[in-house]
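The records we work with from here on pair a chain with its fold. These numbers are not coordinates but entries in a learned vocabulary of local backbone shapes. To see the layout at work, look at the sequence and tokens printed below.
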Amino acid sequence: MTATMGVAATFSQSDARANGVAIGRDARALGQDVVLEPFVNIDRDTSWDRGFNTFGEDPLLTGQTGAQEIKGIQSQGVMAQVKHYIAYDGSMNVTVDSQTLHEIYLQPFADAVNAGVSSVMCSYNVINGYQACDNSQTLNDILRNELGFKGFVTSDWHGTYGATNLNAGVDMEMPGGTYFTMAALKNALATGSIQLSRVNEAVGRILYEMDRFGLLTGSSKHSVTAENTAADEATVLKTAQDAATLLKNDDSALPLTSHDLSSLTVIGPGAGQTIATNSGGEAAGGLLSQQPSALATIKAETAGTGAHLTYAVADELTGAPIPASYFTTNGHPGLTRTDSHGATISDPQVNFTSTNGAALRAGSTYSWTGDLNITTAGAYWLNIQSLGAIGALVVDGNTLTTVGAGFRPTPRYGVVHPTDGNAPTATTDGLANGRTLVPLGAGAHTLKIVETPDVSGRPVQIRLNWVTPHMQQANHDAAVAAAAAAKTAVVFAWNTGGDDLSAPLPDNQDQLITDIAAVNPHTIVVLQSGQPTAMPWLSKVKAVVEAWYGGDQAGVAQAEVLLGRVNPAGRLPFTWPTTLDQEVAHQAAHPERTSNGVDTTGAVCGPRGGGPHASSVCKTTYSEGIDVGYRFYDSANETPLFPFGYGLSYTSFSYSDLDVSRAAADGGLRASFKVTNTGSVAGDAVPQVYLGAPSTVPAGVQFAPKALAGYDRVHLAAGASTWVTIGVPVRQLQYWSDVSGWTKALGTRKLVVGGNEHDTALTTSITVK
């Protein structure tokens, strides 16, 4: 599937719902009753390594996208669980004022409740002094009483702190077996710390949702059944197409012309394989057989047209088997293999795959020991690769990486789940790929490889590959030479799921792009990432497409965007800073806004760490209030690299004839206007409505300079026009008051319609009465 941030970039509620349908359909085929989706936390800090899982920085976009995904999932008879409740962005001890909590962090959960979500997952963090899963104010007072949630609440994995979490509003402990066991509950009942009525209430909420989804009739199937994936593939393809966001297109470098195609070089592993995020245990790499590459698609769609394409991998991710001549054991050639019974034999190298006909018996367990003898000092990529097994690589006593493929039970999750390597794609022959760049001096280095089978029942495949310093330089030089010889160069770059604007692209890709642009002035970059990425080469390339993590059909979608078969219309669901310190969570003048560092227990704080039972020393104060994302940039007069809602097109649009009227149904507004495609090709317009602060702001109330109030996505043929009406919900006209609740902000307010948060194509003043 397209990663969550990519779904948000479509600015399409129909795409969000279709993704939900596909997720629900697949979950049902896998015998699952609950899907742990959607992830509706606000992307307050784009250095958060799980930010790519969110729908971005805006609560309206996040809430509406999440609500549609919930409706799609639950339409397939599967319960959706919205997470992580609440104010969770990697910071572990959050202080937040009530207005900000309601208007920014609570809104997506309110939309989820209104969409009928079955379950809510409480988060790991502390909120205003209380653990999220032990916080009666947020769980009982707000979620239950204020929002009217009727479903059940579970903890995040190992996020409970005692049986008394029941009193705070938690109904189910996940993964279970610690505080909500029969023995623990009996003891808590005996001591009076919980009441039987609360136990019954929790059970009743769970049974209510099970009955709602027909799970009490005995007809629920918890086995895997075959499913035709054609519908899923169509959804993934359309989402990847709709998500593609054109960030730069100088001199109309895109789409590619016949001139470009007559001498085109395509560069990077992401052109030949699908790139997937490798951040977190919830990632999956998919199957190569279901992932047409961008390179293959371009070749297929330009066959017979006179196109001439070359390909340079530049950044070799799979590598090559380490030759036998580099291994010794006690001075003798080869490595010692030991089986589970202690029997030993000598192997010349570790290269046991189906490709070379040497896969090992399913269920077998082996280890290899010996020396790796390096002749030339340098930084070597050492890749442990496997399928049907979990492989661990230890060099000089240091465990470098553990890689698994297929399925395995793990104590971390308490469930069977798919695992993969740390590379952004599988090997070219479909093995999970664990890569580590290791500085090795000349001489012998002790080596140990441990292989244990997973529960898939597949033959065990295990291999040790490398990419030497010489191979790395040769690949880089070959890519630059290919670019110099071509009229146009397209570089497919990638980042990890834990993107960080302060860090360069992995594998020295920034230097690669810089070197290519230096020899080819017609260089185009296709970037596959999930958060803002540093682009020091931006001024040196002609065009940039943010393709996100597009899923199995990403290669097809990327090729179609490059060739002009698809006109990109994705929009940024976050503000793209020029530098990380522009962000609200990284302002040097406000250190209280970030919890980066290490607490007194040694636990890592901030967006790079924190989990169950993280120390309360990891503190963050949301002193910016409601000024999150673009609101902060506007309030602080900061100019980002790209504004929220930004994205270019191969055509152009104009907006006219704005009319704003009151919506009788809910007291909100209707903004109607004409959109015209003024260009020469068909495309999608993504009009956005923003509402400014009232002319008179009540004392003590926060207002952003402007905030997203509605949006739409419409397709128009070249030269065509259409009328668009976008509803502004009454909630967007209100602010939260602890005294009066949701209160309409009276007075004159500015309403703006445009193609992004900085665009003021249409502006009018409205009077709210």
